[in-house]
Design goal:
Number of helices: 13
Number of strands: 15
Helix content: 25-40%
Protein name: Aspartate aminotransferase family protein
Distance between the termini: 37 Å
Organism: Shimia sagamensis
CATH topology of the largest domain: Aspartate Aminotransferase, domain 2
Strand content: 15-25%
CATH class of the largest domain: Alpha Beta
CATH architecture of the largest domain: 3-Layer(aba) Sandwich
Radius of gyration: 21 Å
Keywords: Pyridoxal phosphate
Oligomer: single chain
InterPro entries: Aminotrans_3, PyrdxlP-dep_Trfase, PyrdxlP-dep_Trfase_major, PyrdxlP-dep_Trfase_small
Family: Belongs to the class-III pyridoxal-phosphate-dependent aminotransferase family.
Order of helices and strands: EEEHHHEHEHHEHHEHEEEHHHEEHEEE
Bound molecules: pyridoxal-5'-phosphate
Strand order of the largest sheet: 4-10-9-8-7-5-6
Length: 423
């Protein structure tokens, strides 16, 4: 009998034995095409030789040294690489072990920054109903997924949720997509005014929404307006690129396409591409300098911050993505895949929308394509799809949930950037 405490306690799972390129294999030899990189993690596929070599070399040199005593070469070089390739004002990189830790750290950095600046009343966090920011208590409180929050609600800090930018569901027939984006962005200003501008700390948002609704990009102009509103009231803009970052949408950072720059940005998943657990929080020098010149100490920290082996893996991943041009294939391959999905599913009676950016794609599942009416059992349909696809040798990421009181179900696809047309 197994002593592992699994995610699903009533499911028998196959045992994974190896990975190669875009495929995973179980111990029976069955192959699975990793069409979602687990949950948008494995952007380089499996067994990338350059990443494996970098990890082995780092382990041979020194696997771990605590950041209370040392910095390390791979951590320094990874931070440089990220900042060199991050457009806008981001200047410092705080390395953590995963996505939840990155968003949790972002919230705490935001709060410590205003605290040290003397703006001690700033405490309200605003986020969107269509969002997932992680599973630690602060990150969970920030996310808008009711199903994930429900059992823990007495433990969660108060957060304020506004509408998402979800044109398929929210745009009115007589409205342009631009006007729709301005209308939903206006909810941010309204909420700030309602809470009192001096009391609002941050707005946390995924540039392209992942797990809660399957690769939903914003409409044009939405983020520009959001940035303006945040600037007007001194509210920090925290972008959660844990899922959509690191080249997944066709640019290294998803925010590049929006023509804005955040105050803080969280990345993970594709950062280590699954070769090591790692996440990062990037912030502006303005934020960093307030802490440097104030207490001189970010009052946060985990044992595995800046883990040298994880940093070496992420540095090797970044080199593959940027220097070897792997990330450059995302936009053209994504365009081909979306065309193919539209050909196959574009008229399917139960697929309401085919959408996404780069190799971050989503299919919205509906009961009725014309009316967009969802199935009543929003979690059962994705679960059945996941099992059927897995049985057939395809790993994809179907999910369901309730957004703005409406049910929704979707399949998220996030295949490795090394996929080829034949796959
Ligand atoms: N933020 C977003 C947008 C995510 O999609 C996720 C995970 O799916 C997280 C945060 C949490 O990341 P992790 O599961 O690595 O803790």
């Amino acid at each position: 009998m197994s002593h592992v405490f699994p995610r699903h306690s009533r499911k028998e799972l196959p045992v994974v034995s190896r990975g190669e390129g875009p495929f995973l294999y179980d111990t029976s030899g069955k192959a699975y095409f990793d069409g979602s990189g687990g949950a948008a993690v494995s952007c380089l596929g499996h067994s990338d030789p350059a990443v494996l070599t970098a990890i082995k070399a780092q382990v041979d040199a020194v696997a771990f040294a605590h950041t209370g005593f040392f910095t390390s070469e791979p951590a320094e070089r990874l931070a440089d690489k990220l900042i060199e390739n991050a457009p806008g004002n981001l200047d410092r990189v705080y390395l953590v072990s995963g996505g939840s830790e990155a968003t949790e750290s972002a919230l705490k950095l935001a709060r410590q920054y205003v605290f040290e600046k003397g703006e001690t009343k700033r405490r309200h966090v605003i986020a969107r109903r269509q969002s997932y920011h992680g599973n630690t208590l602060g990150a969970l409180a920030t996310g808008g997924n009711l199903w994930r929050r429900e059992p823990f609600s007495p433990l969660l800090m108060e957060t304020h949720h506004i509408s998402p930018c979800y044109a398929y569901r929210g745009q009115k027939p007589d409205e342009t997509s631009f006007d729709y984006g301005q209308r939903v962005a206006q909810e941010l200003e309204d909420k700030i005014l309602e809470l009192g501008p001096q009391d609002v700390l941050a707005f946390v948002v995924e540039p392209v929404v992942g797990a809660t609704s399957g690769a939903v990009p914003p409409v044009e102009g939405y983020f520009k307006r959001v940035r303006e509103i945040c600037d007007k009231y001194g509210v920090l803009l925290i972008l959660d690129e844990v899922m959509c970052g690191m080249g997944r949408t066709g640019s290294l950072f998803a925010y590049e396409k929006e023509g804005i720059s955040p105050d803080i940005c969280a990345v993970a998943k594709g950062l280590g591409a699954g070769y090591q657990p790692i996440g990062a929080m990037l912030c502006t020098s303005e934020i960093y300098d307030v802490i440097k010149q104030g207490s001189g100490f970010f009052q946060h920290g985990h044992t595995y911050n800046g883990h040298p082996t994880a940093a070496a893996a992420a540095l090797a991943v970044a080199k593959r993505l940027i220097d070897d041009g792997v990330a450059a294939s995302v936009a053209p391959m994504g365009a081909k895949l979306v065309d193919e999905l539209k050909t196959v599913f574009g008229h399917h009676p139960n697929i309401g929308d085919v959408r996404g950016r780069g190799l971050f794609l989503g299919l919205e599942i509906v009961k009725n394509r014309e009316t967009k009416e969802p199935f009543e059992t929003e979690l059962a349909i994705p679960a059945r799809l996941k099992s059927a696809a897995f049985e057939a040798g395809l790993i994809c990421y179907p999910m369901g949930g309730t957004i703005d009181g409406k049910l929704g179900a979707h399949v998220l696809l996030a295949p490795p950037f090394i996929m080829e047309t034949s796959h």
